[in-house]
Amino acid sequence: MPSLLVVIFVVEAVVHVINLVGATVLNDLIWTAINYLPVPTSKTAAEQRKTQAEYLKVRRELNGTSSQDDFAKWARIRRQHDKLLDQLEKQKKGLEASRAGFDKYLSAVRFLVTRAPQYALPFWYAKEPMLWLPHGWFPYYAEWIISFPRGPMGSVSIASWQLACTTVIVLVSDMLRGLLQLFLSSRAAAAVPSKTKEAPFNAANEKARETTGSETKKKA
């Protein structure tokens, strides 16, 4: 069985990732990935993608056909367009009903995996010491705060460990995002001088061409 310290850290990390990415985005990604697997909705999703591709093709053909120049062809394409549109709407409604049930199921699983342990573990292991502080290193009030609410005096309670994990995860996440933004901004700044250097060079070439052309006209 994994250590309770690791379990708390993993739960807080997963919760932070979900909050950072967004539950809706995760639902969309999982739904798209599942529909490529052999599940009941995969066939309907594949048929919808096929119908949508045919619909877009017919729509482009319809837009490129004039009803005045070739009415018979335009009417035939329009009937095909309307038929595919109606079929696409029916498939979309069926998938939306399946998607609503999938979102409810996924929300329940996400709650059981993340939010439920966040509240259940601190309550169940409230009296369990996560770590023991070195004796005499901290004053009494500090030991009392660190062991709050029901941990043994001189220990790190599960609530304090949970708070420490959340703080570290947020700090590391912010640091990584800041480094990524700094890297992207430095690359963008490095690309700007190269363009500014090319501009005077092109202007000088253009000026030289104009001077050469004027001299040629004078000689002529």
**Which bin fits the share of residues in helices?**
over 70%
- What would you call the structural class? mainly alpha
Low-confidence sequence ranges: none
Distance between the termini: 95 Å
Number of helices: 6
Sheet of most strands: 2 strands, antiparallel
How many E strands?
2
What proportion of the residues form beta strands (DSSP E)? under 5%
The neighbouring-strand order within the major sheet is: 1-2
CA radius of gyration: 32 Å
Description of the structure:
About 80% of the residues lie in helices and about 0% in strands. By secondary structure, it is mainly alpha-helical. The protein has a domain of about 120 residues. Strands 1-2 form a two-stranded antiparallel sheet. The chain is elongated, with a radius of gyration of 32 Å. The model has no long low-confidence stretch (mean pLDDT about 85).
Summarize the structure.
This protein is mainly alpha-helical.
Please describe the topology of this protein:
Elements: H1 4-21, H2 23-34, H3 40-63, H4 71-124, E1 131-132, H5 140-146, E2 155-156, H6 158-219
Antiparallel strand pairs: 1-2
Helix pairs in contact: 1-4, 1-6, 3-4
List keywords for this structure.
220 residues, mainly alpha, two-stranded antiparallel ribbon, 2 strands, 80% helix
